[in-house]
Amino acid sequence: MYGNYPEDWVQRYQAANYAVIDPTVKHSKVSSAPILWSNELFRGCPDLWSEANDSNLCHGLAQPSFNAQGRVGMLSLARKDNPISLQEFEALKLMTKAFAAAIHEKISELESDVRVFNTDVEFSGRECDVLRWTADGKTSEEIGVIMGVCTDTVNYHHRNIQRKIGASNRVQAVSYAVAMGYI
């Protein structure tokens, strides 16, 4: 399990073996379609749903993916506030499917690759900010506005991140950063 969910939630999820009853996991084994979290979806596992909400994982979606070896993966996106409307869900479907497939592929490569990645990579504060905003789907232009820097500066940080982490593009850099726990 890779991600940036709260550590206490991840530990609780694993200790309680919630993957066995998690309806999003069950769904991912039989479908490649994304699924929207709801009270109805989690009706059969109220403890799981309650504890997820207690960890501020209140509204979300799960996007299954399958790699070339047939392994199942799932990208879950969650937030504390603002339920995901059906309109937003429809708008996110294509992007989450592509992102889930890319992340799954890269994580599979990391897990099976004999190369050892440098896990002692140190990012500057600005590089961490750029990584986080990129993971949130922001463009270089948007990140520049948020951080109060020009687009060229954001792109400079992207190049440094990719060089440090050994990624060939931004999606790969974010995937590696998530897999290695940097974000």
Automatic annotation (TrEMBL):
Alphabetical GO biological process terms: regulation of DNA-templated transcription
GO molecular function, one term: DNA binding
Keyword Nucleus belongs to the record: no
Residue ranges of domain HTH luxR-type in the record: 116-181
Pfam families: Autoind_bind, GerE
Keywords: DNA-binding, Transcription, Transcription regulation
Domain of life: Bacteria
Leader peptide range in chain numbering: none
Name under which the protein is recorded: Transcriptional regulator RhlR
Annotated source species: Pseudomonas chlororaphis
Gene responsible for this protein: rhlR
